[in-house]
Please model this.
Amino acid sequence: MTIPVTSFPKSEIKILLLENIHASAQEIFRGEGFAVESLPGAVKEAELIERIRDVHVLGIRSKTMVTARALAEARRLLAVGCFCIGTNQVALRAAGQAGTPVFNAPFSNTRSVAEMIIAEIVFLARQLGDRSREVHAGQWRKVAVGCHEVRGKTLGIIGYGHIGTQVAILAEAFGMRVLYYDIASKLPVGNVRAVPTLAELLGASDFVTLHVPETPQTKGMIGAEELAHMKQGGYLLNASRGTVVDIAALAAAVRSGHVAGAAVDVYPEEPEGKSDDFGSELRGLPNVILTPHIGGSTEEAQEAIGREVATSLVKLVNSGTTTGAVNFPQVELAVSPGAHRILNVHRNVPGVLRDINKLVSDLGANIRSQLLATDADVGYLVMDLDHDVSDEVKRGIAALETSIKTRILY
Ligand code: NAI
Model:
């Protein structure tokens, strides 16, 4: 979104992108007229402290640790964009307390995961992983026994969220029956049907696929007991989080033949970087597809992440919108032509709005619209005024002892 009149020259907005962020993000920032610097690697804290001082927006992926110490040195920082899914690499609370929203891209790789799951369902049903390995080894083993079509089979989805829903749509197009189990009530798409309990889903499904988040409730959600509830000869797929499935129990169920195959993309412990000695009890088992946490790893997803996070950051810079921020009150106020917009982040204590409104009315300005949201630490106010008294108002608001950050937009 572009706002035609801004009181800040856009070329003065400095964007620092680390860790080789996709060109799609740079295009969006450059299209806005912002000054973009892009570096290929992550930087350590000492270098980040030097670099963060004058930047307005910092873009990182998973390897740059944005510590409270680094944030304390940032004089102009408006926002941090994590061009990935996770945000634990950022000191989120410290950022929020400093008035800095942090954005990520939770859904840009949804389709990539869903497509991989669909491919794996067919791979498992036809034992394609094993056949491919055999022919690579020079072995010609033409078999039909234990190989199946997926048409008419039942797919049970645990967690009917963004990914689960996409998997369901694709599976139905394949002619599968689809059931799901979710703790939240969800509107089913197509002919998909909700089942009330996990045990019922496990007992009714030929294929079971997990798409839940990592929470205390989902930790160890699939263990020996749950695997025993699965149909004899069923298949299990996990591309959610490694802690959700008990790997030892799954390996035992595959060895016993109760589970006819599994596709696993995530593990309780995963190597930090590339590794040649990854250990798992599942290694070497028949009809078990093991992948190195690549469910969301496609060029399309990288491009979509670049676009999604850059768009959130542009909206924040241009209009103060914080929708989607992971550590900050969410405010999105529609742009109103002719209005003058002021943003204020303040400590969340009683009476701040009263003080600000008094300041504004004492200056003879009329408030056209105003939105305030708070979290435990801060309040975030977006306010549109009829008259251009922004400078005086800004000075007054910034002088309040509760104010953390105040910005005139236009
Ligand atoms: P989402 O938040 O859209 O959906 C999760 C669903 O699980 C929600 O509908 C929620 O109500 C449900 N749920 C939560 N706790 C549950 C429980 N105890 N029992 C049943 N349902 C429960 O999440 P999204 O985007 O679909 O992602 C799902 C998982 O996929 C996450 O764990 C995410 O980390 C993982 N993921 C893995 C990737 C990979 O590369 N393998 C890439 C992207 C996401």
In short: The chain has three domains: 1-109+299-328, 110-290, 330-410. The longest strand covers residues 340-347.
